[in-house]
Design goal:
8-stranded antiparallel sheet, 17 helices, homodimer, 4 domains, Alpha-Beta Plaits, alpha+beta, Uridine Diphospho-n-acetylenolpyruvylglucosamine Reductase, domain 2
Chain lengths: 496, 496
């Protein structure tokens, strides 16, 4: 860990230096046996995510195996007013997991049981530690699948916590559209279920949606009932080049307006394609490219394909390169799925500041174009790709982690992009969540009164501020703790 | 008004007898001029909904024309700790609007401006008093439409408040799936916007979804940004008879599991068809019937039609009666849309207790069959129809409003149905909301700890309990007020 602002650093060191109250440690050790640990390597691993922040370890980790165990751990922490941070696989990228106020990390990865699959109802109930790939492997023989795909093999609990989405959202929606009910442990350690399994309900406030995207700050999500979708009869994938990013984006916008049910619609800029070619040994044309997927009956796939080819041609798009058989489709999509790692290798040893702007699609071409120009002016290497059907795109700002001025430049660029997205009636985060990094943009995006409503909810559900404290909304009287990047440069504090 | 339990009646009479504080009345009169009224006929109309309850008028009504006016009215009521009830068109059916603690009704029907339609983004922003038919009339020339159709020509603000849905939900979702952002006046009279216009966001707690279905108890919704959908190229409708309700339901379940994107899938039992024949002078076969709609490209419609015919035939369904041209489809669907009024005429002078059970679709056939048997045993005339693709169905329990024992029997039947739905992992209300009538079932459905979380949210956002008090969740220290039906029989209090 590097230096922090003096007060925050003192507070954090104090908590971490002090460790857990001995009685709490005893209670947790008695409950969890060897599944309670203060081992520094384990703690460090649990204070590490995919963000540009330095790790901040918790004081202890417990490995829970059931909702009841989570409830016991939270109740014990509640009694000692000690922070609780839920942990899935650690793939979040905005600092969500960092134990900036110390406390106990509850690792949910052993809660990996698929509790039921009800094909007739198109639902599955899983423990929070089940990963999306594990669920889909279990479903492979059923003819149904779980649709949300954020790229990483995230835990489904973590995907609920960040309201995740991804390449299939244009067709099947985000986690908000694919969760029917949650089992949640409250700040006091009570177990609640937010809804039953009906496909719709008007029975009171929608707690399911309140906990989705709450990033562990309102409760610990332990079980999730998700919606399943029937495997389409036919699937075809295609890649097509465009003379510029704008024409690629316009093609997708037109398809959306016509109601073409695209299964995926990903745009990759020329630099991303270059990275993919280097990483995956492909020979894709290094131009702005759409990766598309069509699904449905064979006739529907045919029809959608014809429509998209016509739209793309109008926009100056090139020939479609098709992939229909599963292994061909895999060959086409694998490079897209590896885009993140491929881009990191554009600059060996670099770290990435990953942005997550999302705007109304009519503003997307402008937002991407202005961002591309800004990137060029800043002289930072930054491939751009995204889920253009949703208006969502990511820039990977590739920086030397030891170069403070470069990190500052990247943070300034990221800052301007968030403001640009907000100014274009969009959001600073389409799918990655707030964590530590986006907290200071919430007021700009929503207004102070809206954020105050969020604070009221936080205080009402977690009056002692033990649930992932210091994340999402900053409470009065709470120390503002901002860990540093490896360079020591502050990030995410521009607008405060 | 009829007698109430002594304490509740005293409290209500006290409030209503006392009327508004003079200073509050002066403030509202100064702000609203002639659009502030205490006229008893106007107040009575604003305390009347479509439920089986007797009307309970507010002390005054203001007709607001802007968000700013709503904010002023709420701020004034907040200063005087006086209840505020928002009113759209009065089509709610669970007692939502009844001014059981007196106060000021804010009529939003003059907030009927469509603020913008952005075809490129597939969004429209409307004031809360715009009705769904008015919005769709405005959209008619655009090639886009607003999809949610609860039957009544409800205001869009009211539809947000009750998380409404309807015949098209099987394809396009409920209000939860079709609202991007809300402007809301808080209990203190502050104006907030819950989100920007991006199609997805992870930027903090999802206040949009919290206010959807909150029935005016957490804030007053004044503006709504909704999603639009492209008008399908081709639409075909069909009616098909089945030997029994179960086989009709099974046909829809199979279609859902195959991923057939049905545009509508309504089941009507033989009694409903009989009512329709009498009311609409049609000669439909008086048997359980599915009304279906297919939409998409002509080829997709053809493909879906063939699939559904095959599924129906397997289940013993009869010939499909087709309607493809707009006037034919209107002729087919109009009787379905009039089913509610047609059923009321099965028994002239009756009133209806309308139920709203919704269960996982695998439990739907059982739930409907047990309910049909229960209806028969109770000797109550009660047609059944519903949105079977969602697992949601309604019974109209047709009772003589002057016959207390019949009303008690209907209430018992309704009570058993709600318990049956909950027992089958469903909900006591799929789309009508809680209002007064379902409050006592929330704990049974969700558990006491879950309802306590809802109460915490209510207290946090409305600490003085001025927003539609006495609805959705019952707060400690709050008088439990239950108005009566015309017979004087108590309703909705079974499980308390």
């Amino acid at each position: 860990m590097t230096a922090m602002t003096s007060q925050s650093a003192r507070q954090t060191r104090l908590r971490m230096g002090k460790g857990l109250p001995a009685e709490l440690a005893e209670t947790l050790a008695a409950t969890f046996g060897p599944r309670f640990t203060t081992n520094s390597a384990v703690c460090l691993q649990h204070g590490t995510d995919e963000s540009a922040y330095e790790p901040v370890p918790p004081d202890a980790v417990v490995f829970a195996e059931s909702t009841e165990e989570v409830a016991k751990a939270v109740a014990a922490c509640h009694a000692w007013r000690t922070p609780v941070i839920a942990f899935g696989v650690g793939s979040s990228i905005e600092g969500h997991l960092l134990a900036i106020h110390g406390g106990v990390c509850i690792d949910l990865s052993r809660m990996n049981r698929i509790l039921d699959v009800r094909q007739q109802d198109l639902t599955a109930c899983v423990q929070a530690g089940v990963t999306r790939e594990a669920l889909n492997a279990e479903l492979a023989h059923t003819g149904f699948f779980f649709s949300v795909d954020p790229g990483a093999n995230a835990s489904i609990g973590g995907m609920v916590a960040t309201a995740a989405s991804g390449t299939t959202t244009v067709r099947y929606g985000t986690m908000r559209d694919n969760v029917l009910s949650l089992t949640v442990v409250t700040a006091e350690g009570q177990v609640i279920r937010t809804a039953r399994r009906a496909r719709k309900t008007s029975a009171g406030y929608c707690l399911t949606q309140l906990f989705i995207g709450s990033e562990g700050t309102l409760g610990v999500i332990t079980e999730i009932t998700v919606k399943l979708h029937p495997q389409p009869e036919a699937i075809a994938a295609a890649a097509v080049n465009f003379p510029d990013v704008k024409s690629a984006v316009e093609t997708v916008i037109l398809a959306m307006q016509m109601g073409v049910p695209l299964a995926r619609a990903e745009m990759l800029d020329a630099l991303t394609i270059k990275a993919i070619n280097a990483h995956s040994r492909t020979s894709l044309t290094e131009a702005p490219t759409l990766f598309l997927e069509f699904s449905g009956s064979p006739a529907q796939v045919q029809e959608q394909s014809v429509t998209l080819q016509a739209l793309a041609e109008e926009q100056g798009g090139g020939e479609f390169q098709w992939a229909t058989r599963p292994e061909e489709r895999k060959r086409l999509w694998t490079p897209r799925h590896h885009a993140y790692f491929a881009c990191l290798q554009l600059r060996p040893g670099c770290r990435s500041f990953t942005t997550d702007a999302c705007v109304p699609i009519s503003n997307l071409a402008q937002c991407v174009a202005e961002t591309a120009a800004d990137i060029q002016a800043a002289g930072i290497l930054a491939p751009i790709f995204g889920h253009v059907g949703d208006g969502n795109f990511h820039c990977l700002l590739l920086v030397d982690p030891g170069n403070a001025s470069e990190i500052r430049a990247a943070e300034e660029l990221s800052h301007r992009l968030m403001r640009r997205a907000i100014h274009l009636d969009g959001t600073c985060t389409g799918e990655h969540g707030v964590g530590l990094h986006k907290m200071s943009y919430l007021e700009e995006e929503h207004g102070a009164a809206t954020v105050e409503v969020m604070r009221r909810i936080k205080r009402a559900l977690d009056p002692h501020n033990i649930l992932n404290p210091g994340k999402v909304v900053h409470l009065d009287g709470e120390d503002l703790v901002r860990p540093k990047t490896t360079s020591g440069a502050a990030v995410g504090e521009r607008t405060r």
